[in-house]
Amino acid sequence: MVTHVSSEAHGDERGALIAFVEAQRGGIRRSVIGLTDEQAKARPSASELTLGGLVKHVAETELNWLRMAQQKPNEKVRTQETWGDSFRLVADETLAGTLAFWDEVARETEEFIRGVPSLDDTFPLPEAPWFPKDGVVSMRWLMLHLVEEIGRHAGHADIVRESLDGKTAFELVALERTGAA
Q1: Which residues contact 130 (CB under 8 A, 6 or more apart)?
Q2: Helix, strand or coil, per DSSP, at residue 136
């Protein structure tokens, strides 16, 4: 569930984009309110998606896009063999640790976007069958893509949470606002 996104200061396009990305992050963060690590790892339906795995996936995906935009190597790069691990908490990973990692990525994304000379600045897309050959995208495109990517998974998280314990997005927003998580 999307909550109201506060209006940006007049002419602050960066602030507006950051606010909409943060609103989508909030949807996923709310989906894990009050959960244990065991619940965050649970698969309440035929889907392989778990709430902890969704948090991890969006955090790693945001980091990957940030590193592409920065044109730096991604320290959490996945291979075909480890791709599945980006959708689940493994070994000693915890929900709290994954959320803290995502908070750091979010902070770095905001600092980067606020610091780029222009949202029109571009970066190259990697070679992949789903990207155009020699494709480039802007920083504005990056932020809109993060809204799309995180929002899509926020919807998944709503369904997984409701399947897990019946709590809906509306209930989770209320819990977040009252601090009764």
Answers
A1: none
A2: strand
**String of DSSP letters for 84-110:** GGGGS--TT--HHHHHHHHHHHHHHHH
Helix (H, G, I), strand (E, B) or coil at 52: helix
- Residue 37: Cβ within 10 Å count: 15
* Alpha helix stretches (DSSP H) within the chain: 13-31, 37-41, 51-70, 95-115, 139-165, 169-178
pLDDT digits (tens, 9 = 90+) for 63-113: 999 999 999 999 999 999 999 999 999 999 999 999 999 999 999 999 999
Single pTM value for the model: 0.93
Closest CA to 105 of 149, 148, 137, 75: 75
